[in-house]
Amino acid sequence: MIDKKFIGKVIADFRTTAAASQLRFFAKATGETRAIYLDEAAARDAGHPGLPLPPTFLFSLELVQPPSAWRDELGIKVERILHGEQSFTYHRMAYAGDTLHLQTRITDIYEKKGGALDFLVRETRVTNQDGEHVADLRSVLVQRNG
User: Fold this and answer.
1) CATH no. for residue 36?
2) Residues 35, 28: contact at Cβ < 8 Å?
3) Residues with Cβ within 8 Å of residue 42, at least 6 apart in sequence
4) 111: nearest Cα among 69, 68, 140
5) Whole domain around residue 43: which residue ranges?
6) Measured between alpha carbons, how far is 119 from 129 in angstroms, rounded to an integer?
7) Which among 18, 75, 102, 121 counts the fewest CB atoms within 10 Å?
């Protein structure tokens, strides 16, 4: 079992900026067809200061971090993990060019099926360059044991 002493541990703390080209690419890759996510003029016509981040884009920002030493520290075997769950709570819009601060911490660790599965819950708080709360992400990583 993953040691519960790691509950509360910050495992990522970084700033990044989403370029308009990244947002367009993500929107197209996910099948988004609304013009506000693809065309800056359409976004401005709709009252936005620029291209808004498409739904779920924040998850992709977590993936740009290099492989994390925290997995080794916790004894997580990459070949045994599954992405179990993902949720988003949005508090305000974010746009191309915003500098976003993502801080991820472990908020729970538990097991199921008599220890055959470990669950690790991560929560990420996202704020913008002005310190405004943009979103909360929650994900569950599942590790198969044995």
Assistant:
1) 3.10.129.10
2) no
3) 35, 36
4) 140
5) 4-144
6) 32
7) 75
Site of tokens 């976003």: 100
User: Domains in the chain: how many in total?
Assistant: 1
Alpha helices in the chain (DSSP H): 20-29, 40-45, 57-63, 69-74
- State how far the Cα of 104 lies from the Cα of 127, in Å rounded to an integer: 12
Give dist(CA 15, CA 30) in Å, integer: 24
Provide the total of helices (H) and of strands (E) in the chain, helices listed first: 4, 5
Tens digit of pLDDT for each residue in 69-122? Answer: 888 899 998 899 999 999 999 999 999 999 999 999 999 999 999 999 999 999
Quick one: which of 89, 81, 91, 100 has its CA closest to 140? 81
